[in-house]
Amino acid sequence: MEVEVLGEIAAVETIAAGRGVQIRRHLDRVHGKGNWRKMKGVATVRLPDGSICRAEIHWFEAHGIGRKDIKIKRVIS
Fold this sequence. Notes:
By secondary structure, the protein is mostly beta strands. It has one domain. Helices cover 10% and strands 60% of the residues. It has one helix and four strands. It has one helix spanning 24-31, and strands at 4-17, 37-46, 52-62, 66-76. A four-stranded antiparallel β-sheet has the order 1-2-3-4, with no helix packed on it. A hairpin with a 3-residue loop joins β3 (52-62) and β4 (66-76). The longest helix is centred in the middle third of the chain and has 8 residues, at 24-31. The model has no long low-confidence stretch (mean pLDDT 93).
């Protein structure tokens, strides 16, 4: 599911970091070695069907690599 983030991401929190990121080896192989963190936040997103809504999103990020694998966890009314 392709998600486009519109604007800023608010209420950003770190869920896991370093060895706590369970798919760290996969992220290293696909995107390159880095200090991976699993993050969550709330943002306005455009869904694949073109509709726009607020949603809680989760993603992985590393310094120098950026945000990868953005996923919608729940839609907020």
